[in-house]
Amino acid sequence: MEYKLIVLDIDGTLLNNDNIITSRMRATLIKVQQMGVRLVLASGRPPYGIMPLVKELDMDKHDGYILSYNGGQIVNVSKNEVVFEKRIDPSMIPYLEKKAQKEGFAIFTYRGDTIITNDVTNKHIIHEAELNAMKLEQVENFSETIDFEPDKCMIVSDDEDALAELENHWKKRLAGVLDVFRSETYFLEVVPPFIDKAYTLAILLEKLGVSTENIIAIGDGVCDVNMLQLAGLGIAMGNAQDSVKACADHITLTNEEDGVAVAIENAVLSEMHPTAIPLDKLNEAAKHALMGNLGIQYTYASENRIEATMPVDERTRQPFGILHGGATLALAETVAGLGSLVLCKPDEVMVGMQVSGNHLASAHEGDTVRAVGTILHKGRSSHVWNVDIFTSTDRLVSTVRIVNSILKKK
Questions:
Q1: Contact 67, 155 (CB under 8 A)
Q2: 307 flagged as catalytic
Q3: Is 45 buried (19+), middle (13-18) or exposed (0-12) by CB count in 10 A?
Q4: Helix axes 93-103, 160-173, angle to 10 degrees
Q5: What is the DSSP letter of 137?
Q6: Which residue in 50, 75, 73, 56 sits closest to 65, CA to CA?
Q7: In sequence order, what are the residues at sequence separation of 6 or more whose Cβ sits closer than 8 angstroms to the Cβ of residue 203?
Q8: What DSSP string describes 240-291?
Q9: Cα–Cα distance between 151 and 148 in angstroms, integer?
Q10: Global pTM?
Q11: 99 strand-pairing partners
């Protein structure tokens, strides 16, 4: 199956218990994007709390998306553009606040980089602010302060029975006006009607023209169940509740064992063939990197051969008009790098180790040189590539030997 989109929950799924993305996870997710598969992060977090993860995974360079507020908002992170959003009518806030005050519950919502609440001392609200690197603002009159349309409101209490009773009451009282659900034992979320990750994901798929059978969804929580069931391949984390696992097509390892990376390596990267590598997307993704700045373009890829071109112009020539040897080596390393990336197993990563070049002839400004990389040695711990670089008239300019070290992801 050709998968075009991978949708990931964040807490308990993408992140381990220390709330970090491991090196193996990052390497796997960047590699799958380089192969043309887009990422979507779907979470109850606000956008402010998700964007650092987006940057860490280079999603802004690969046309990624976030579904924040458990589906209340879709953001195209490459354009920093909100493409879908549903908000709560502010006229409902006094009712929510009055009920929360009557029960002695805390209440909060989000605005930009700030959490607005009636109780900045509540440990769960403090943790929410720390988790998303947001500021806390204490207010005396919550409903008067909320003079905007919030994406969601959160009711907080450690009294699980009382919170469950309020949840059941509001499900009947607010049906069709607002939706309520428990995202944690101590959190009752109040959101616009008909909002969940699956509903909003379906809207995104329609905008992108992607079929449900071409997506993978991975999660660990009850809020992820509808999303897992919508996807062509729904994967539950090993640390998920049994009720979530029962709704999934497959169960991977836990978030402490890089379960997401393992699932993607098995479902996507192990099935990726060189002929399916989207060279146009690779070229587009690299346009602001060194490769793009030098005008390098991949033109062909197979397991044993990689080709690319590079213009001889003001970016790659020496002051007196001939091809710069450093640019030649950069072209060779770019070719060998993709070659080893193609050859690596899903649980492996490539690191450049050695490059040596022999410059045999010159290429002049206005020409376009062509690099042809062929594999000489494919070992368990290293790859050796020979890269020959020709002018447009097939005169050999340079021959370069590249050694790449192959490491297991950690």
A1: no
A2: no
A3: buried
A4: 150
A5: E
A6: 75
A7: 74, 84
A8: S-HHHHTT-SEE---GGGTHHHHHHHHHTGGG--GGG--HHHHHHHTTTSHH
A9: 10
A10: 0.72
A11: none
pLDDT in tens, the chain (410 residues): 789 999 999 999 999 999 999 988 998 999 899 888 999 999 999 999 999 999 999 999 899 999 999 999 999 999 999 999 999 999 999 999 999 999 999 999 999 999 999 999 999 999 999 999 999 999 999 999 999 999 999 999 999 999 999 999 999 999 989 999 988 899 999 999 988 999 999 999 999 999 999 999 999 999 899 999 999 999 999 999 999 999 999 999 999 999 999 999 889 887 665 556 678 878 887 888 899 999 999 999 888 899 999 999 999 999 989 999 999 999 999 999 999 988 887 778 889 999 999 999 999 999 999 999 999 999 989 999 999 999 999 899 999 999 999 998 76
Tokens standing for residue 397: 């300019």
Residue 313 backbone dihedrals phi, psi, to 5 degrees: -145, -160
Token representation of residue 321: 């008009």
Give ∠ CA 271-272-276 in degrees, rounded to 5: 135
Distance CA 146, CA 116 (A): 9
Which candidate in 97, 189, 307, 333 is catalytic?
Answer: 333
